[in-house]
Amino acid sequence: MTQHASPPRDSTGKVPSAGAAPAWRGLMARADVRTLSLLGVLAALILIGGITKPDEFLDTRNLQLVLTQGSVIGVVTVGMTFVITSGGIDLSVGAIVALASVWATTVATQEYGFAGILFTAVIVGVACGLVNGVLIAYGAMVPFIATLAMLASARGLALQITDGKTQIVTIPSVLDLGERDAYVLGIPPLVMVFAVVTIIGWLILNRTTFGRRTVAVGGNAEAARLAGIDVRRQRLYLYLLSGLCCGIAAFMLIILSGSGQNTNGNLYELDAIAAAIIGGTLLSGGRGTITGSVLGVLIFTTITNIFALNNLQSDVQQIAKGAIIVAAVLVQRRTASTT
Amino acid sequence: MAPVPPLLSMNGITKSFPGVRALDGVDLDVQAGEVHCLLGQNGAGKSTLIKVLAGAHQPDTGTIRWRGEGVTLRSPIAAMRLGIATIYQELDLVEHLSVAENVHLGHEPTAAGFVVRGKVARASTTQLLKRLGHPEIDPARLVGDLSAAQQQIVSMARALSHDVRLIVMDEPSAALDPDEVDNLFRIVGDLTSAGVAVVYISHRLEEIRRIGDRVTVLKDGRAVAGGLPAKTTPTRDVVAMMTGRNVEYVFPERPPKDATGGEPLLEVRGLARHGEFEPLDLTVRPGEIVGLAGLVGSGRSEILETIYGARKPSAGQVLVDGRPLKPGSVRAAVRAGLGLAPEERKAQALLMLESVTRNVSVSSMSRFSRGGWIDRAAELGAARAATRELSLRPDNPSVPVRTLSGGNQQKAVLARWLLRGCRVLLLDEPTRGVDVGARAELYAVVRRLADEGLAVLLVSSEVPEVLGLADRVLVLREGRVVHTAPARELDEHRVLDLVMEGSPAS
Questions:
Q1: Of the candidates B122, B80, B73, which has an alpha carbon nearest to the alpha carbon of residue B102?
Q2: For the segment B112-124, what is each residue's pLDDT rounded down to a tens digit?
Q3: Which domains does chain A possess?
Q4: What domains does chain B contain, in order, with CATH numbers?
Q5: CB–CB contact A226 B245 (8 Å)
Q6: Could you give one GO CC term from the UniProt record (chain B) (predicted)?
């Protein structure tokens, strides 16, 4: 009946050509500026490592070590990415890892062998996530406060269980997974676990209704509610997911260290949040990237490794990490405003 | 007599953002003591222009002269120092601070340079509020506890707390009731008679007739007409300049049917919420558009949101197809076939970071997924079909929804419910923030959806919209239905009488 007055002139939404693009172009379009710049940073770090310590850094064993160390925090970061994408935060991940690792390595638990340790670690992680989720989703508590309380309680409980002592694992089948004999084609089992968690996480976030709901809740919780999404249940699931990742990470840490300690997972919350943020997940929610988070983890572990190889103390490492977080956020803001 | 230079003259202002030329050589001159109205559709450049004037944006080229001298407005503070104050549509008040603290924010009266003298601030705030005709606002109250209209007064008091010579008001009447609008106009009159210039932005042409002296019309970042006499330029000319066409409101024709035949699809029985609206009965049949007319604060939006389950009723029930809905459950309502296009589109409906596709599919994800796994090709296809049916522009559902115009964003919301297979559509201020030109198209879409068998319940503060679009109208006053009649038996004057007086004045 009437013509449309004026087509929107806002040309920021470029109209991609509908024709079939060559595969590489599709790949380039998908690997956005941010991912490419993260890859660039990682490449630069590898170059620096290779130049400063050519023999030690590029040694297979060292690379295996870097990846293994990154795997534990990486699994935690995948869970954290989901929580942050939904507009939440989980400060309790490090404490949950500690609690799960000590609960799973008590003398009583070790009597049940491999399965007992794995099962306990995962169940403790999920249970902590359940408490977080119920408090936040149904108790209407602010995620920062609820998970801060969990941080304090879980650390306290972990100390109580261990009485500050290191609990040595005596189950050979668990310890064997950390040995070189268990490597498949030179890849440590823990790295494979990380890879599997990453792939599953990526698929859930990008290809499932669960992922869509997570993004919707983080982008605009009120709009999500009015669109018919059960926002509270989604929030509960997300903290459960984060707890599950912590349980898996705790089991990985048990394999890696051959023990359970109440000091495990110290400051994991900060590392996981930092990795997610420099990877491009919005702290305010509504946008999350598993790829970015994984690159963020790899960047941080590589830095730690290069600094250690060059005999630089951990205080210098911390300062460098802080600088990288600031730089990454500044770069992102620039790219965000020009695209 | 030597010619007095205008208070403000902007010449050849251009401003580009990545991909958009928002201002393309705009001229604007404002005289002291006049009300200069700025007209234009959304996206015409009004907001950018006033942000340049407020010092919030720097122009790429062009000159600004203030009382005859060239100036650069480097920052909002620089503009404020010259005496330019801006009252934005989205009020920029700090909710957790008191009225007095907000009014004096950034220039608190202090002792010894840093100790805030609260008593002095409150006293001067009281003075300002009295001058603005709202002595009842307590300077010690928190701004967050005030109504939208009162917050606007506070915002104005803040502007006046500086020594202003020019006030920019961006759609100040949008959130106000008629009597509050009268008060606003009185304030504007006081200001101009004291020599202050007002740049007034509004969509409502009748307001511009009432208080405007001159009009500048913007279109596509250019001033298509500058300094026209506000009182005497024919409406048709103004609309034609804004839209490039000669229509204002075009309502689709009602089908000549008698809608009484069908069974009610939506039935509301004695629905009430304490303090918001009294027990309400209404029915909407398939193919029927029922309108709720009433002032801001008459409970219109609350009624829609309660029917939709977003608020829990204190009494009564909602039935769809004769089956009662679980009260206070949006999910139950959506499952039963209800869909809401809420008043605050950006805050309540849209995922602004996401594409049109994802905004459209969000309520129907189970249709494109198996075991939680989304079939993205099917999703895109369905979103494309739904948006095409509503002629959403651009015809590409992959673009981010934030790049769409207001009218097309509303279509994205409608497409969401269309895709869901919704049978009862609740529309809350469907044309708020929608260009005059795009409104007619939205009206046609709504009518077509009704013709296809949807039941539509429409809420609008624009009486002509309710009368033009609805088949049947319920007039609300203070949370109570005071009159029900077929739309063709009512006119705007009578509805306004009912809305104000509460009794049929005949």
A1: B122
A2: 777 777 888 889 9
A3: 36-338 (1.10.3470)
A4: 8-243 (3.40.50.300), 262-337+425-505 (3.40.50.300), 353-422 (no CATH)
A5: no
A6: plasma membrane
